[in-house]
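Hey, I'm writing a tutorial for new members on how sequence and structure tokens pair up, and I'd like a real worked example in the thread rather than a made-up one. If someone can provide the structure for the chain below, I'll link this post from the tutorial.
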Amino acid sequence: MTIRVVLVDDQALIRAGFRAIIDSAADLEVVGEADDGAAALDVIREARADVVLMDIRMPGRDGIATTRAITADDELAAVRVIVLTTFELDEYVVDAMHAGASGFLDKGVDPDTLLDAIRVVAGGDALLTPNATRALLASITDEPAPTAVDEEVVRHLTAREREVVALVGRGLSNDEIADTLYMSPLTAKTHVSRAMTKLHARDRAQLVVIALRTGLTRLDDL
């Protein structure tokens, strides 16, 4: 099945470069473009996008606000957003994660990494480097300690699911979780899927945010 991609960036040259790379892959296709966040939602709906490459800094509605609008729209629940930035620890990356983005890429990414990233996010996985996870955690540790409300969020998880979510928060893949907890990768994947369902997480990136915000994953774990 072809993965349908929409490009949202105010620079035509950037869009053209990404389009050329993406359309070179047999399993990927650029199905739409927008040069600002205000126009992006209509394009994403009409093109039935699977993945959106979203620039953070744009005039008018920026990439953060546009990502938030996408993740808040039930009709776009299946759409995954990769934000584009020029610095890995850009302050806006953390805001994008909170807004519901599934990951981020540096605009100078090499073609193979770009294509693989789109496939990873389309499959429901997060695209977070350890440095990005630490930046996200640092932003959360500046907030008040987990409250009873936070505890309520994870109350319905089993003890094993809590362990799994904590490891997802550390950035571990299903295979790495399986090795750590001495279970099969399929079992690890099942626990992750059940936790996502119980926590109403759109994807793995949102599960990382929940793990960090509720204290299941802590700074010492990274």
